[in-house]
Design goal:
mainly alpha; Arc Repressor Mutant, subunit A; 74% helix
Amino acid sequence: MNAVAAEVDELWSAVADPSRRRVLDLLLDRGEATATTLAGELPVTRQAVTKHLVVLDRAGLVKGRRQGREVRYAVRPERLDLATRSMAQVAAEWDTRLAAIKRIAESAAAQRDDLRLRKGTQ
């Protein structure tokens, strides 16, 4: 797998989890926050939030900045934009595939109907 594909896979994996998406939403709303602050707004522990932040950080979607004893996290918008573009590209590819499947199914149905009509007139 090439580096770009691995990077996109990591982004998809990071945003696949609903709890991580909720962490991203909260960070987008707040601008930045600590794991403790985020845990106060989620139905998970601070340790769980920290684990989610590690995954999001590894994917490059958030960055941590030490401020005294705390680490404050913020979304990296350019990486979130890359994830969004990647998802839009996959959606477009699936739309193309589904349109092809629809054309094939409609063609098969038309051939079947034509064959039935021919049999009925003989």
